[in-house]
Design goal:
The protein has 211 residues and is an alpha/beta fold.
Length: 211
């Protein structure tokens, strides 16, 4: 899909009814001017939003091609045709297990290598580091806090961001385990991102979702 300008996307997020309502509620509860809460909301939107660039994606493709040859004897890919077919008429959401940092790098690489759009990937805010953060953001990462508890404004903006991704036809990737496994075992799933996905679908069911 067309990569619209990040500023345009953020402006559209902040002008949605749900975010406007959340801003007004926050201003009322904290007895703070609406303009100050709007600036806070803008900061949240910038903190979350990816800035996917095909130039950065091509850079990662070259770098990872070299890396795979250093680490592995080969990469075996099965059933990619199933995904290619589903992508023609569905909003694709990838939900891989998360046993290492190789997971999201390899998945995006394989998809790009097989003519599929690399997904926008949910990443922990702890990865938004100098140099690393902008590179990951350019490759499609959007950053999220581990917990939204007690911050209704942040939740509303993150919800709206996901919704915009889905209705614009971007593929999205998130780990329903919530964090990386430190033991190599699959962790018990968490339902936060999945519930946001369902809420978005009930708002606009014009495009079927394939997990």
């Amino acid at each position: 899909p067309y990569l619209s300008h990040r500023k345009t996307l953020i402006k559209q997020m902040l002008s949605s009814n749900t975010v406007i309502q959340a801003i007004e509620n926050e201003a009322s509860q904290s007895e703070t001017r609406v303009q100050i809460i709007e600036e806070k909301a803008l900061g949240y939107a910038r903190e979350i939003s990816s800035h996917q660039s095909y130039l950065v994606i091509r850079f990662f493709h070259v770098m990872l091609t070299w890396l795979w040859h250093k680490l592995y004897d080969g990469i075996e890919v099965n059933h990619v045709a199933t995904v290619q077919h589903a992508a023609l008429s569905n909003e694709i959401i990838y939900v891989p297990c998360h046993r290492s940092h190789i997971d999201y790098l390899l998945l995006s690489y394989v998809l790009y290598h097989n003519g599929l759009t690399p997904p926008h990937i949910a990443a922990g805010k702890n990865l938004n580091l100098p140099i690393v953060g902008p590179l990951l953001r350019g490759a499609g990462a959007f950053f999220m806090r581990r917990s939204f508890h007690g911050d209704a404004l942040y939740r509303a903006i993150f919800d709206e961001y996901l919704h915009q991704m889905f209705i614009r036809g971007y593929s999205v990737e998130y780990f329903i385990e919530g964090s990386r496994s430190r033991t190599g075992r699959t962790l018990v799933p968490k339902t936060g991102m999945l519930s946001m996905t369902i809420r978005s679908f009930t708002r606009d069911a014009s495009r079927p979702i394939c997990l």
